[in-house]
């Protein structure tokens, strides 16, 4: 799981000027990319981005859940396969996408 987090790039809400692509085109670039989403209770979900709705809820497919077994610092993680899941925007704390450096620069312009 940590390896996936290290090789992925963060999508950050940016206050700077957006790129020349409309929001729909920018989201289409994310389709079927591997995405790592963290939620408030400390779990992480790694799956393929399927869609997002107007409220910001994300649907991932072929998803694996990672969670800490203990609350200690170097705690072992447990994983389980879930399939397709919906992650509410109210629970989401982080969102990372696998992509190249060039794509990172274009995706960083995504706004919430």
UniProtKB/TrEMBL annotation:
Residues 28-88 form the Sm domain. Residues 1-19 have a biased composition (Polar residues). Pfam families: LSM. Residues 1-20 are annotated as: Disordered. It comes from the Eukaryota. PANTHER family: N-ALPHA-ACETYLTRANSFERASE 38, NATC AUXILIARY SUBUNIT, SMALL NUCLEAR RIBONUCLEOPROTEIN-ASSOCIATED PROTEIN B AND N. This is LSM domain superfamily. It comes from Arabidopsis thaliana x Arabidopsis arenosa.
